Amino acid sequence: MDYKKKIYILLAVGIFFLSLSGILIKIATAPPLITAFYRMFFTVLLLSPYFFFKHGSKLRYFLDYRPIVVGFLLAVHFILWISSIQYTDISNSVIFVAMQPLFTIILEYLFAREDLKEGAVIGIIMALIGSSIISIGDFYQLGDKLFGNFLALSAALFASSYLFIGRGVRKKLDYFPYLYILYSYAALFLGIGVYFFDLSFSGYGLNNYLIFLGLAIGPTLIGHSILNFAVRYLSTSIVSLSILGEPIITTFLAWLLLNEAVRLTTILGGTFILGGIYLASVYNNHQKRKQSRLNSSES
Questions:
Q1: In terms of residue numbers, what domain contains 187?
Q2: Cα–Cα dist 154/296, whole Å
Q3: pTM for this prediction
Q4: How many domains does the chain have?
Q5: Each residue of 212-267: pLDDT tens digit?
């Protein structure tokens, strides 16, 4: 087996581990804030020995205000997304959260003065149509699933915000120390939230703590690490396409393991959304590479 095929297989493994996140969150019985806190806390705990051994000199970046802001946005993203799964179907939640690349494109257009090209506009319109189809299907449960859909959509906005704002810091730091600092601040803010809302840090049972650890090891450490590794060897377009497999796999697992029915409106709307995300992401990446080559030739 050649090297590139191994990367594709590794990427598939990474997407599978990412897809477990929604399932693990659904079966957890602890409050969403507790689940979010311990996911980040265990992640930081597991990464700390390597960080202090290899990147101890990067501790000064903890004093930079930007990782603090980005860590707060990540914390809010986790609270919103984990809460959304309590109100709506897992399939709806993961599809709406997958719209993060579209929000990133819009933020780049609004604040980084990057052009909004035709392909990206079509992709955004497709995603809006898909969102409308899913919401119409959930309209009969106005106060329940629509609220969960809104939370998941808000989680996607906060995810794109922390990625957008964090770009400047990522240029100064290697990927690992950046993530460690980001996760540390997210855990800190989530911990403050637990204290502020007078929730207990203990007493949630062994099963819940195993779920928290599973979220830290599987989707967070293994899933995201593989994605970061794969993007070094595969095109951004291929990785973007593979990430769209996460909501599909999660929806299948929810049906298989949790007996969660998938409505026709979710399938139809999800097809529009995922197609729009892929079209917008691939076209946007293509335009960025084209502009980069143009700038290189001019210089």
A1: 3-298
A2: 37
A3: 0.87
A4: 1
A5: 999 999 999 998 888 877 767 776 667 767 778 888 899 899 999 999 888 888 88
